[in-house]
Write a structure and sequence with these properties.
Layout lengths: L1 E4 L1 H9 L6 H9 L1 E5 H5 L7 H9 L3 E3 L32 H17 L6 H8 L4 H15 L1 H12 L1
Antiparallel strand pairs: 1-2, 1-3
Helix pairs in contact: 5-6, 5-7, 5-8, 7-8
Length: 159
């Protein structure tokens, strides 16, 4: 699969509005619409497929041509199973700690984008210390930002 930066990705690269690790940021630059995911993984940046999946979930990368991104990069079709917004891959086997680590930056970005209206919600997100705390707060975040924008958070928490 070949990925390209989204408009949000270009903006995030400029203003660092999306928290990316140094190795994610280095690999992110390589996604130019010409290199495949395997090429970037093989570039020796120390990036893993989970890092790329997180960047897709954050909305900074998308497949060339706007095709739906599948976390398994290149899987066969998942059509017919559920609508695209509800497509849920099989459980990944990630621990609660890893799910929290993946979901926390998404939650802070979503609530931070609400401005003053989301200030208290952002403080609640920053006050979470575990997966269970963040999972309990997810419905409030979803209600504040909408189901479509919260899809990445749901994916990080539940897959």
């Amino acid at each position: 699969m070949i990925l390209v930066k989204t408009e949000a990705g270009h903006q995030a690269l400029k203003d660092r509005s999306v928290p990316l690790s140094p190795r994610q940021r280095s690999a992110f630059i390589l996604f130019d619409g010409k290199r495949s995911v395997d090429d970037v993984l093989a570039a020796g940046m120390g990036i893993a497929r989970e890092d790329i999946d997180q960047m897709i979930a954050l909305g900074v990368l998308e497949p060339v041509g706007g095709q739906p991104a599948s976390p398994a990069a290149g899987d066969a079709s998942t059509e017919g199973a559920k609508p695209a917004a509800q497509a849920v891959p099989p459980p990944s086997g990630r621990s609660k700690q890893q799910r929290y680590k993946d979901a926390y930056p998404i939650a802070t970005q979503l609530t931070g984008s609400l401005g003053l209206m989301g200030f208290r919600l952002n403080l609640q997100v920053e006050g979470t210390a575990s997966y269970d705390d963040l999972l309990a707060l997810a419905p409030k975040i979803r209600a504040a930002v909408g189901a479509e924008r919260a899809a990445a958070l749901d994916k990080a928490l539940n897959d």
